[in-house]
Amino acid sequence: MNFAFSSTAQSYINRLQDFMAEHVIPAEAVYFSQLKRGERPWVVPPVMADLKARAKQAGLWNLFLAADEHNKVHGAGLTGLIGLSNADYAPLAEIMGRSFIAPEVFNCNAPDTGNMEVLVKYGSAEQQQRWLQPLLSGEIRSAFCMTEPDVASSDATNMQATAIVEGDEVVLNGVKWWSTGIGHPDCRVVIFMGLSDLNPKAPKHLRHSMVLVPMDTPGVKIERMLSVFGDQDEPYGHGEVSFTNVRLPVSSIIAGAGRGFEIAQGRLGPGRIHHCMRVIGAAERALELMCKRAVRRVAFGQPLADLGGNSDIIANARIAIEQARLLTLKAAWMIDTVGVKAAMSEIAQIKVVAPNVAQMVIDQAIQIFGAAGVGADTPLAAMYANARILRLADGPDEVHRSMIAKLELKPYRNSL
Ligand SMILES: Cc1cc2nc3c(=O)[nH]c(=O)nc-3n(C[C@H](O)[C@H](O)[C@H](O)COP(=O)(O)OP(=O)(O)OC[C@H]3O[C@@H](n4cnc5c(N)ncnc54)[C@H](O)[C@@H]3O)c2cc1C
């Protein structure tokens, strides 16, 4: 068993770490001061454009697109594809996860990454030219509209919004919420998921469609922006969006009517690796900050590190991060070698483990920092909020646990 990263991954790790240290981490304070100074909250801080241009020039751009997806692109002349394996990209996602602003700098932020993967795998040549190319070049951003306020959306078959084909048009109706990224000034398109087959007796995973909806289509309205622990996460934001008799050509449906669930499944595997490795990166940064603080700050005549159970807390944080990272890398390796279906349990396991480990480690770092930990002078409070929401976003912990248990019990049930 070889735990070393490939030479390709190692070379990107070195380049990305250097870029983060030289450009991204020092720009964080500038970014947030520009964001908060802005008269309108929904603007992109100018420093972001500068960082993106530098990252592109350094060849650290669109690193997330895995090799198999790269090969499946059928649109002519698409540029900006790298083609790393999931195992090679995973450590890069971890490095990006150390900073709130880094994923966008490298055009590797959710939900654009998932949406681009959908377009790479399932988009028509026309859809790829119109939407994928500007997403790949970072000119526009996108959102993903699946969750609904009126139904328990951890069970996607509860969905009520509709995408009905009428002649050569598809007509959308319904309300979505927690559509991340929809507040971004460059958000031009959303992927909307709705019911196309209203017959309740039809096979439940063949009734839905995914539709590309330009933001300026009549009938699309952002009703309000939602806040997360009191913060609106500008300039991305999470919106509640209504779709009222939104009419689009049928060519806006991705891969054809009724294939929504198939696409949703296809979108899941790599996206979970990205989320989990990013949150592990946040946990690693929290541990680093916690250790620095613990050895420098003194109370009751001793460094904080030597007081009470603090050294155990630090040791346990290291153990938990290592476990979460190794499991996530294993899941990435399995996606590359045996595919998403065979890696279903591991993918569900990491989605439970990584955000919980990160939440615990960041919480402990906040404690060691005292009051400073909950303020805005360190990234800890924002990282904590992000780890906490990741226990809900992309499916609550409980749904992933039920998947793991179902797979674990399957052979025993089959043998009855
Ligand atoms: C910050 C943030 C960003 C998001 N971004 C997006 C986005 O971009 N696009 C999008 O479409 N959605 C997004 N979401 C929505 C997210 O995916 C949903 O919130 C999630 O799927 C859960 O759906 P729900 O909120 O309707 O919870 P519900 O389905 O109502 O579930 C509530 C609770 O019920 C319990 N529960 C549910 N199922 C089970 C089970 N099988 N076993 C045991 N207990 C269970 C769990 O405790 C669960 O937390 C985002 C959410 C957040 C918080």
UniProtKB/TrEMBL annotation:
Every Acyl-CoA dehydrogenase/oxidase C-terminal domain range: 258-406
Domain Acyl-CoA dehydrogenase/oxidase N-terminal: 80-139
GO-annotated biological processes: fatty acid beta-oxidation using acyl-CoA dehydrogenase
Coiled coil (UniProt feature): none
Gene3D superfamilies: Acyl-CoA dehydrogenase/oxidase, N-terminal domain, Butyryl-CoA Dehydrogenase, subunit A, domain 2, Butyryl-CoA Dehydrogenase, subunit A, domain 3
SUPFAM superfamilies per the UniProt record, alphabetical: Acyl-CoA dehydrogenase C-terminal domain-like, Acyl-CoA dehydrogenase NM domain-like
Keyword Chloroplast part of the UniProt annotation: no
UniProt KW keywords: FAD, Flavoprotein, Oxidoreductase
Domain Acyl-CoA oxidase/dehydrogenase middle: 143-246
A GO term for molecular function: acyl-CoA dehydrogenase activity
Subunit structure: Homodimer.
Family in the record: Belongs to the acyl-CoA dehydrogenase family.
Name listed for the protein in its UniProt record: Acyl-CoA dehydrogenase
Organism: Solimicrobium silvestre
